[in-house]
Write a structure and sequence with these properties.
The complex is a heterotrimer of chains A (307), B (414) and C (305). Chain A has 307 residues and is mostly helical. Chain A has two domains: 9-76, no CATH class; 97-306, MetI-like (MetI-like fold). Chain A contains 16 helices and no strands. With 414 residues, chain B is of the alpha/beta class. In chain B, the strands form four sheets. In chain B, strands 2-1-3-12-6 form a five-stranded mixed β-sheet. In chain B, strands 8-9-7-10 form a four-stranded mixed β-sheet, sandwiched between helices. In chain B, strands 4-5 form a two-stranded antiparallel ribbon. Classes of the chains: A mainly alpha (307), B alpha/beta (414), C mainly alpha (305). At the A-C interface, helix 2, helix 5, helix 6, helix 7 and helix 8 of A face helix 1, helix 3, helix 4, helix 5 and helix 7 of C.
């Protein structure tokens, strides 16, 4: 029985229901190997988290003793509360909560805009022949190798010229500009891996540039959209230097407060508060990762081809 | 003509007040960029902000931790046309490029009125006065290299008196080693290695040698026997440091002294905050001395505020009010007590200062002991090059000849 | 044949217009932001600019100083070592994680988050944790010694010639999750039928992965490689947080050199020279790949037409 072209997904499903397959033994050596590897990797990955959490639950006296792997003597969430609402970040001592909504107001439009532009660019580069666009993309990718800080002086002058320096629009534009190389690369490679027949069929059916993009390609991009969201939300949420310089005093993101809590120059360093503050700040990207799981599903593109 | 009713009059008056009052308050609005963000530093800047408010101003705080980040933001905003009212720098040459570009307002008026030339130490004046104009207001004096020691550790090692010469210091370190303690608490970061070297040069090599090197940038001095001895002794300090020192933060090294695991730390007067946070008292749990002997040089470093250029009269007024408030005796004492540094003027009430700070201020009265911080004498670029040489020397086995050559090349830079 | 050609010809100018409009943001960004900054940066590297741009001209003096700087040479060498270890390990671990998680394991969401969370955290704090963990006095070495393995030594982080590998280690920890996510997305696009066919043909799983699946997810792999290479060239936070470039200058990296001279040392002339050299190095490394790519594409184009 050939398992290839003749079977459509529905008929395979029906067949599977009609003839229950003998259940494979659950605990084969291969399975054991898989779980073993994953368990060991998980332990390696979680070790720093353990140290972070333990440190955040200890008192400074305990931390000064220097036993980083020891469990906290009397675990207390004081450091967490302090990090959120009363750690000193300058004249104010209101913790890192101050910048939370600013970060949200920066991240949402920046992510949406940079992903849209990246997807559009990737689509145009992957399916539509344009020699000069290919060259531009190469330059764009090379530009990504220059550290952001080198761009600061020219960008400050440029944005000031348009009156956008120190504004929300300014910082959103800056994030879009810096996100463009990676986003374009991401989508371009993804679209290039999709079967060309899809695109040709759509053209024959009468689709124009925008319709094919909006009605065919974008809906099919779910897995890569998830990865793009993960990348951009993490990078923009955790960005410090661009928000510091370009966002303006009213829009300073949470990372500025986080930096103020962690990086005091000659002041005391409260490691428990620092760890708590870092973990609190990372909750938003972590939430995105957890929620994104629903979309890491199999067979979206595959299904479309067969259909 | 009929007079308006009292009700109408008072409403009109209220309206006028409402219109005028915020405008008047906003006239002394000052947005200040600084890098004092931790608990103790925050309490300190609070003193200045309160004093400014009491003088009729409105303080808008823009704190950014990390000197480099704060200065980067200040300069970006000046370039971008949206400058703050004041920005913090170190008493150094960091802001001299900004002055050269004509991007700062001067505060000659305040300097003249308050008589800065009469009470400010000479090294500070040479840093803030460029081409005859005052461009920065100093707010404190930090000494980057006090010697902090644990009383219990000294007792355990049988050290009865604070070392008065470099040899006595090495003897004390040997005693600490014999007692099984870490003699010198140290954090292996380039800047810490750097201030240790600078202090050793000043304390053991002497102010003359120090100035020939940093102020005159004389290459021949580097090759002199006295300088070579400084280099050798500096490296000798490394043998008293524990193997876990590389990368350690300065306050973790202080913790070693606080818990009695280590004997001595060479660190700036900001270390006092750590001791106080751990509820230790000077004289009982820990001790402090600023150098070897009663005439040891006192290195002067500190922080200043500069005022970005503006023609807006309201902002200029705020800048001048800030400058006046920051240098007033009461503000100076209140601020420096919380900060751990000492006031820029010696004509202040020292009763509330802790013993280490009082000692520092007494020393400041002796002008012969004033010594400028290297940052006041060399550009950040040259300072960086020197740091690279020193940190390499500290962490590698290098012959003194090689180090001498490298230092000569580095000090020559523009 | 005919009607389609006519339709295509009809749609010709309109699609050109739509395409160019869509690519306009990219064109503007590249020309004004990226090319503009690159040119400006090269110009600055020929001056003695300190905190602010100056307009003099000193030719290649900054480049001479750059290549005479021992710290820069160490940085470049470290970048190569770091890059090799980091990219290899991250790709390997990321790939293995993606493959194993793809095996319909229980608790996939939890596992995925465990491997991705390092990417979510700011390296300022996690770098410090790694510094503590790898420090011989505070971390693993002393803990394991106290537990009985008295001979255990792991003091790479304080050793001049091994510290850069500890930095790579921490970076692998941070980035593997992202590569895993990227490759998992690619794997999820692989047709289920492949597995069935392979099973029926009796091919062992590992061979399927190596010879069939890997080529199929080549675009995801390529994306991951480029992302990793970008991280290598721009690596800054991990070094500053873990070792501060030390001990001494043993773990210096080019991005840290550039930023130190850009801000702290107020010498944007030298920083621009370093940045230009870094860009040229990255171009040299990528150019062969890009050239091979465009040649392949042009061949495909010619074949399709």
């Amino acid at each position: 029985m050939s398992a290839l072209a003749s079977d459509t997904p529905s008929s395979v499903a029906v067949a599977r229901q009609a003839r229950p397959r003998p259940r494979r033994p659950w605990l084969t050596p291969a399975r054991l190997g898989v779980y073993g590897f994953l368990a060991i990797s998980a332990a390696f990955f979680l070790l720093p988290l353990y140290v972070m959490v333990a440190t955040s639950l200890k008192t400074m006296d305990e931390i000064r003793l220097g036993a980083i792997f020891a469990l906290p003597g009397k675990p207390a969430f004081d450091a967490w509360v302090q990090a959120w609402s009363s750690a000193c970040t300058g004249l104010e001592c209101r913790g890192i909560q101050v910048g939370f909504w600013n970060s949200v107001r920066i991240v949402v439009p920046s992510t949406v805009l940079s992903i849209l532009v990246g997807a559009l660019n990737g689509y145009a580069l992957a399916f539509w022949r344009s020699r000069w666009a290919g060259g531009l993309f190469a330059v764009l990718l090379l530009g990504a190798f220059i550290p952001y800080q080198v761009f600061i002086y020219p960008l400050v002058r440029g944005l000031a010229f348009f009156g956008l320096f120190g504004s929300l629009t300014g910082i959103v534009l800056v994030h879009t500009v810096f996100g463009m190389p990676v986003m374009t690369l991401l989508f371009r490679n993804y679209y290039a891996s999709l079967p060309q027949e899809l695109f040709k069929a759509a053209r024959i059916d009468g689709g124009n540039f925008w319709r094919i993009f909006l009605q065919l390609m974008l809906p099919m991009s779910t897995p890569i959209l998830i990865v793009a969201v993960i990348l951009q939300v993490t990078n923009i949420w955790n960005d410090f230097i661009l928000g510091l310089v370009f966002a303006g005093r009213e829009n300073q993101p949470m990372t500025v407060q986080l930096n103020n809590v962690i990086n005091s120059t000659t002041g005391e360093r409260f490691y428990n508060v620092n760890m708590a503050a870092t973990m609190l700040t990372s909750l938003v990207p972590l939430l995105i990762y957890l929620v994104s799981g629903r979309w890491f599903v199999r067979g979206i593109a595959a299904g479309a081809v067969k259909g | 003509m009929k007079l308006p009713s009292p009700a109408a009059l008072s409403t009109a008056l209220a309206a006028v007040i409402v219109l005028v009052a915020p405008h008047a308050a906003a006239q002394n609005k000052a947005e200040v960029i600084h890098w004092w963000t931790s608990g103790g530093e925050s309490a300190a800047i609070q003193e200045i902000a309160t004093a400014y408010k009491n003088a009729g101003g409105v303080w808008v705080d823009s704190a950014v931790a990390g000197g480099d980040a704060a200065r980067a933001q200040a300069i970006s905003r000046i370039v971008g046309g949206n400058p703050p009212t004041a920005a913090q720098f170190n008493t150094s040459k960091q802001y001299h490029d900004v002055i050269a570009e004509g991007l700062l307002n001067n505060v000659d008026a305040v300097a003249a009125k308050e008589g800065w030339e009469s009470f400010l130490p000479a090294p500070i004046i040479s840093s803030i006065k460029v081409k005859g104009h005052f461009y920065a207001v100093p707010v404190n004096i930090h000494m980057p290299a006090w010697f902090w020691y644990s009383k219990s550790a000294f007792q355990k090692a049988g050290i009865t008196a604070e070392p008065k010469t470099p040899d006595e210091f090495f003897a004390a370190l040997d005693k600490l080693k014999a007692a099984g303690l870490v003699p010198l608490a140290f954090g292996g970061q380039p800047w810490q290695e750097n201030i240790t070297f600078q202090d050793w040069l000043a304390q053991a090599g002497g102010a003359e040698l120090y100035l020939k090197f940093f102020r005159d940038r004389d290459a021949a001095t580097v090759a002199s026997p006295a300088f070579r001895k400084v280099l050798t002794d500096f490296k000798r300090l490394k043998s008293y440091v524990d193997p876990g020192s590389p990368g350690r933060n300065w306050n973790d090294a202080t913790s070693m002294v606080i818990t009695g695991k280590a004997g001595v730390q060479i660190m700036g007067d900001w270390a006092k905050g750590e001791f106080l946070a751990a509820k230790q008292t000077v004289g009982k749990d820990f001790g402090c001395f600023p150098g070897f002997g009663p005439k040891s040089p006192y290195i002067i470093a500190g922080d200043v505020f500069v005022f970005p250029r503006t023609t807006d009269p309201a902002m200029i007024k705020s800048q001048q009010l800030l400058a006046t408030v920051m240098t007033s005796p009461t503000t100076q004492v209140a601020f420096n007590n919380k900060k751990g540094s000492i006031p820029i003027r010696t004509d202040v009430d020292t009763s509330k200062m802790d013993p280490c700070a009082q000692l520092g201020l007494t020393i400041m009265k002796d002008k012969s002991r004033h010594l400028a911080n290297p940052d006041m004498l060399i550009t950040p670029d040259v300072a960086g090059a020197l740091t690279d040489v020193i940190t390499k020397y500290w962490n590698n086995d290098q012959s003194v000849d090689d180090v001498v050559k490298a230092l000569q090349a580095a000090i020559k830079g523009s | 044949m005919e009607p389609i050609e006519r339709k295509r010809a009809q749609r010709g100018p309109r699609f050109r217009w739509a395409l160019n409009l869509a690519l306009l943001p990219m064109a503007l960004t590249v020309v004004f932001c990226y090319v503009g900054t690159m040119l400006w940066s090269v110009r600055i590297s020929t001056t003695t600019s300190r905190t602010f741009p100056a307009s003099d001209f000193v030719g290649l003096a900054q480049y001479v100083r750059l290549f005479n700087s021992e710290r820069w040479l160490v940085s470049m060498e470290n970048m190569v070592l770091f890059g090799a270890v980091f990219m290899t390990l991250t790709m390997l671990i990321g790939f293995l994680l993606a493959v194993f998680i793809d095996q319909k394991v229980r608790g996939e969401s939890v596992l995925r988050t465990i491997f991705l969370y390092p990417y979510a955290m700011s390296f300022v704090a996690t770098g410090l944790i790694w510094q503590w963990t790898l420090n011989p006095e505070l971390g693993l070495q002393s803990a394991l010694r106290r537990m009985g393995l008295t001979g255990f030594t792991f003091d790479w982080i304080v050793t001049q010639d091994k510290v850069i590998y500890t930095v790579a280690f921490a970076a692998v920890w941070q980035a593997s999750g992202l590569v895993m996510a990227l490759l998992l997305a690619g794997l999820r696009g692989v047709d289920d039928e492949i597995w069935k066919a392979a099973r029926i043909d009796g091919i062992p799983a590992w061979r399927v992965y190596l010879s069939i699946v890997l080529p199929m997810i080549a675009p995801s792999v390529a994306t991951a490689l480029v992302l990793l290479f970008l991280s290598v060239v721009k690596a800054y936070d991990v070094v500053v947080a873990m070792t501060g470039g030390g001990p001494g200058t043993a773990s210096e990296v080019p991005a840290k050199f550039i930023l130190d001279y850009l801000f702290g040392r107020a010498n944007i002339g030298l920083a621009s020279a370093a940045s230009t050299v870094l860009l040229l190095t990255a171009t040299a490394a990528l150019a062969p790949w890009m050239y091979a790519r465009s040649r392949r594409e042009r061949r495909v184009q010619r074949g399709a037409a």
